[in-house]
Amino acid sequence: MSVFSHRERVQTILNHREADRVPRDLMGNATMILDDAYVRLRDHLGLAPIAPMRKGTSANYYDERILDVFDVDFRRIFLEPNQSYNAIAEEPDGTYTDIWSMRYRKDGIYVTALNHPLAEAQEPQEVEAYPWPRAEELFLTNGLRERARERFFSTKHALVARNPFSAGLIDRACQLMGTENFCLSLILRPQVTRAVLGNILMIYRQVYALFLEEVGDYVQMVETADDIGTQNSLLISPEHYRQFVKPLEKELYALIHEKAPQAAVFRHTDGSVFPLIPDFAEIGIDVLNPVQTSSQGMAGARLKSAYGDRITFHGAIESVGADEEDLESEVREKMLTFKTNGGYIFAPCNHIVAAAPQSIIRMFAAAERYGGY
């Protein structure tokens, strides 16, 4: 079989055909390396320090030198945060407040929300009165189209419009309202829920339109995210998802497909989401991440058999920090399960939290051994 370029390989796999090998991904949405593990890997590889690409999260580094080491097929294009977006108000106690009026504290490797500014909202009018940020306050696009065009023609990598938001519609609503209040409001205050989700969607639509009007001609994948699964079930019922969230997601994905018609829509959600995968395919999701096969009902063979011709699965490797034998066994098994007839992108299942450098290196070495066609 002939050797494919990175971009050709990705496009072939996304079209559910076999290429020369399975594409590999890292340092995208839900495939970042948390800072401590990143620094250890960087130093192990003998790479000089670089500046973080963001702050206020537990994974702040995007380093294409590491992507080169592991022959990763994707490169990200980022929206640049506006100065006001980065003007995080930091307090002497280490807490900070962002542009959404959310207050946070760094707790070890994680970030904890300390307030929920819409927790007490009882009427839609209170939601409308909230100081919602505007797209132009959040991000800049100066020179973005030129940079994307240059990357497209100067490299053969598959280009990805990096998710500009860590939180999706449900995630953001839970942050603003508190998860318990959000879930209760689906039943007790549905108009408040609709108002919160509707305002979030309006901002997200504006931002994705701003982004993709600049880079849509050049990207092969556009990232989105919204967690709706737990380890054993859905966060909300399928009925509530279809009533409150699905129509809004459909609207967002339609905009993405319009602005980047040749690109696949990538959707991240943790957990047990098997009952909703037909809904995801129906509303325009092409790539599902992170494929937690250890979650209830998410066995790899079941996913591939049921939806392998409609959805490209991205991730699935959960043993990054495990011993060498377990990691080798999982990579071999997941490749055998998912790679037939394309439709699989190799990546860690969610962020790499605390794995040793040698474990990350072994993971990609195993991908080289078992990922060929």
Which keywords apply here?
373 residues; 13% strand; alpha/beta; TIM Barrel; 4-stranded antiparallel sheet
The gyration radius over C-alpha positions equals: 20 Å
Here the CATH topology equals: TIM Barrel
Low-confidence stretches: none
The strands making up the biggest β-sheet line up spatially as 1-8-9-10-11-12-13
Percent in strands: 5-15%
Residue-averaged pLDDT, rounded? 94
**Form type:** globular
Largest sheet: 7 strands, parallel
CATH A-level architecture: Alpha-Beta Barrel
Order of helices and strands: HHHEEHEEEEHHEHEHHHEHEHEHEHEH
Give the total of beta strands: 13
Overall number of structural domains: 1
Q: Separation of termini?
A: 8 Å
Give the CATH class. Alpha Beta
Q: Helix count?
A: 15
Structural class: alpha/beta
The helix content is 40-55%
Description:
It is built from 15 helices and 13 strands. The protein has 373 residues and is α/β, with parallel strands linked by helices. The protein has one domain: TIM Barrel, CATH 3.20.20. The chain is globular and about 60 Å long. It starts with 5 loop residues before the first helix and ends with a helix.
